[in-house]
Amino acid sequence: MNTLFLAITAIVLVLLLALVLRPLQEDDEPRQEEEDKRISPLLRGINYLLSDEPDRALQEMVQVARLRSEAADVYMALGEMFRSRGEIGRAVRIHQNLLARPDLAKSIHLQAHMALARDFQTGGLLDRALIQYGKALEIQSDHAGALEASLRIREQSSEWQLAEELLSRLERVRNESYSSHRAYLFSEMARQCLSQESRDEAATYAARAIELDPACAPARMVAIELAMAAAETDKAVTEIQALRSHANEHFSLVIPQLLAHSDFYDNRGRELLAEMWRQQPDAELALSWLEALARERSADDAKVLYHDLGFVPATLRESLRLQAVLGDEGDAHARFSRQWRKRAKNYVCEQCGVEVIDVRWQCPQCHSWGSLHPKSEEKI
């Protein structure tokens, strides 16, 4: 049973019961027959809900809507229920019919546009959802819900500049600063420009992101890539050290990047990483280095590095990762470790707790930026 649907249905039924009873209580001479027609479907709906029969409860709600066709609130509630059940088409039709009414109050007009936008967004029709959120903002320009929902859609569509404009509007409405959020948007612009070979623009956006949030790892990585690609060795070293200093938990992500520039890695990168290891032995640094080296070069190179580092795993997760890199193919433990490594969740969101395999700068569940952190332990 969908507990969310049950909760929404319960609230809606109570609300509608109040809506139906209120005009009857205000009538000096209520007619018993009309009262029965209006209340009976609600009572039956509540009974079906308590009996764990949401489908039949919803049928009674439809009957209530027919009896009170003039009440927009009834249709709004019914549309919410259809959406919560995944019946997007029916929810859309209800909200579109509401918007077609010429006598609709401005407040209900706003609610209907917002509801229709959520219908389209839930159904994956993002362009249509944006249109409806835009119409809601035409009615109320400081509607935080419409701004935030539009922002999420722009981010989902990788329209970073439009997302940044919406973030600015949201800051003004809420009178809050979202500098870290904006830094990640700038870093995404930088990465997008880098992929399009627009290096000057990429450098500009990366610098703006770092200025807003020195711990913005993706912006640092763009700056490192630009420096290595331009053969600016000293600048690349400075940026790598800055990443280690400001965003150490994500530092290991730069190692495959260094190996991709083999000249830089052989001439400066390897010794730089070794120096960092000597200064602060770090299991994540050692394991990520071993994994990247085995993947980009060879298992033999990884074994040589392992002996040079003298790394000893301290947790189950570290042991599994090491065995996945160095274990012999004929070893059952090594085979198990490699299978585990392919599906292991490596990052966890500090806000909502969702776990993912690969790094994401924005949480796929709660949409927070910079909230996913590497896992240090593993439960087996």
UniProtKB/TrEMBL annotation:
Keywords: Metal-binding, Stress response. GO terms for molecular function: metal ion binding. Residues 347-374 form the LapB rubredoxin metal binding domain. The keyword Metal-binding applies. InterPro entries: Rubredoxin_2, TPR-like_helical_dom_sf. Pfam families: Zn_ribbon_LapB. Signal peptide: none annotated. This is Heat shock protein. It comes from Mariprofundus ferrooxydans PV-1.
